[in-house]
Write a structure and sequence with these properties.
It is a single chain. By secondary structure, this protein is an alpha+beta fold. The protein is built from 3 helices and 4 strands, in the order βαββααβ. A 4-stranded antiparallel beta sheet has the order 2-3-1-4. Helix 1 runs antiparallel to helix 3. It starts with a strand and ends in a 6-residue tail after the last strand.
């Protein structure tokens, strides 16, 4: 399994637009082949900073998503809203304690 974490910062006036766009696309993202989990977080000390956290069965599944029409549509709507350059990490999940 691969975990993908993406940090995004938005201009204050674009936060509502981003949230609307995310709500419209989250089901399609989560339903994409290989995506088994999707969450959205907001930084408590800065409400313009968001993180997506997703689980992918394989790196190939993530790459197929990144080349898909779903991703291209989401990215085209999201990219103009950024106030900072987004950052992304692909990490391995080693352990979960509950």
């Amino acid at each position: 399994m691969l975990v993908r974490i993406v940090k995004m910062g938005f201009y204050k006036q674009n936060v509502a637009v981003f949230l609307k766009n995310f709500n419209e696309s989250k089901v399609a993202i989560r339903a994409f082949k290989g995506c088994t989990f999707l969450e959205l977080y907001r930084k408590k000390s800065d409400p313009t900073i968001f993180f997506t956290y997703s689980h992918w069965e394989t790196e190939d599944d993530l790459e197929l998503y990144r080349k898909s029409e779903v991703f291209n549509t989401v990215w085209a709507k999201t990219k103009p809203l950024f106030s900072i350059r987004p950052e992304a990490w692909s990490v391995e999940k080693l352990e979960t304690l509950e």
